[in-house]
Amino acid sequence: MSLRKRNSQLSSHTPSQGAANDSADAGNDGGYNAGIAVFSYIVGGIIVWSLIGWGLDNLWGTRWIVLLGALLGAAGGFYLSHMHGLTRQSSSSGESNADSGPSTDGDSNAK
């Protein structure tokens, strides 16, 4: 590529266009990032609490606490995902739910 052609390409790209493109790209993968976070919470919880259950099984001579630990870890992962606002539908305003913080609905949805 010639130096003149490269300079014309660089000058045609204004900083405001770059910022707009960067923010648009960041908004497109918000669902993917939230999905990875949910997956990480659940799998991480299962692994950690299964290892704790396995240790307690070896200590106490039982064989069922590892299963209880896995179930507790999965439930904890779902709970953390919900509290961080990762399990809600995305809003129409383009705001990522991962950026909105913990869920604040409390008991207002109870019937």
UniProtKB/TrEMBL annotation:
Residues 1-25, 87-111 are annotated as: Disordered. Residues 90-103 have a biased composition (Low complexity). The chain crosses the membrane at residues 32-52, 64-81. Keywords: Membrane, Transmembrane, Transmembrane helix. The keyword Membrane applies. The keyword Membrane applies. Residues 8-17 have a biased composition (Polar residues). It comes from the Bacteria. This is AtpZ/AtpI family protein. It comes from Paenarthrobacter aromaticivorans. The lineage of its organism: Bacteria, Bacillati, Actinomycetota, Actinomycetes, Micrococcales.
